[in-house]
Design goal:
264 residues, mainly alpha, globular
Length: 264
Amino acid sequence: MRSLEEVRFLLPEFEQHQHLNRSARNPSKIYKYHVSNLREIEKALDSIGRFAKQEIAQNDSHGALNSLVMLYTLMIGAWAECRLKKLLHEQFGFSESERLQIEAKDSQHNQWIKAVETAFRKHYNLKRARLDQKSLGVSKAAYYTALKDVLDDELKSIIEIRNKLAHGQWVYPLNNAGTRVEPEKYRLLKSENLLILQLKFSLVRKVADTIHDLIVSPPTFERDFDVHFKRLDQARIDIKRRKYSSFRDKLIQARLRDRRNRVI
C-alpha cells in the first residue's frame, strides 16, 4: 500500500494523465474552421444591420431596405447552421456517436431539436426517460419546453425563409416544384423587419449558449439558469410586444439630432 507522501508525489502525474485523456476525448480537426466561418458571418451581420439602420433612419431613401432585410435574414440562417456545426464539434461537448445522431436528422431544424434534447439528457444523465417535470423538475422542464418552442417558432421560420432566399426567391417564395407561390411563406417574408429579426437572432443565440453550457460547462448552466431563463422569456415577449414603428421613429429622430448637432 502506498504511503501518503507517495500518493502526494504521484498526484500531479495522475492529474496530468487525466487531463491528457480528457483532451483526447472527442477531438475535431475542423472545429477551428467553424469558428473562423462563424466569425466572418457575425461581421457580415453587424455590417448589414448597421446599413439597414442607416436606411431606416433615412426613410429608405435609397430603396435598399427590403434587400438589406432579406440579406440579414439569409445571414441569420447561415449563422444558425454554422453555430450548430461549431456546437457539434466542441472538444469537450458531444461524443462522436451523439454528433452523428444529431447530424442524421433530415433538416437543420430537427438537428437543433435533437441537439437540445441530447444536451439535456447528457447533462442530467437521462438516457431514456421522458424529459418532463418528473425527470427534470418544474423549472428545468419549463426551460426545456421554452427552448424547443423557440426552435419550432422563431428558428424554423428563419431556416425556411433562408432556404427560399438562397435559391433567389427574394420576392416570391415558390414551392419545391417551382410551380406556384407559397402564400404562407410570402406573408412571412413580407412581415419580417429588422427589429423582429434582431430579436429572433438574440433568441437563437441564447439557445446556442444554453446548449454550450449544458454540455461544455455544466456548472455555468446551473449557476446562470435563472438569469438565462428570464432573458429567454423576456426576448419572446419582446417579439410580440415591441413595435417596429417606435424602433423606426427612434432611429429617424437620432439621425435628425445628429444632423442638428453637426450644424451647431
